[in-house]
User: What shape does this take?
Amino acid sequence: MSATTATENLSFSVTPQAAHGLAGLFLRFEDWLVQRASARTLYSMDDQALSDIALSRSDVERVNDTARKALWRH
Assistant: This one.
């Protein structure tokens, strides 16, 4: 079973707010991975592409900073 399948199964049975223990850790880790992937995608875009979706480079930096801290927020 892949990690994606395992976390998908967990996400259907437990909400992130109600998750405790190992299930909560896996859900937080999955959320962090998704945020990090989104941040990397935004960071790789040029200024014109960011402008097309109404974002600036400072918005991307804020998203990246949030993604770095997301795993430790809980």
Notes: The CA atoms of residues 14 and 20 lie 9 Å apart. Helices lie at 3-13, 21-44, 47-52, 57-69. The first helix runs from residue 3 to 13.
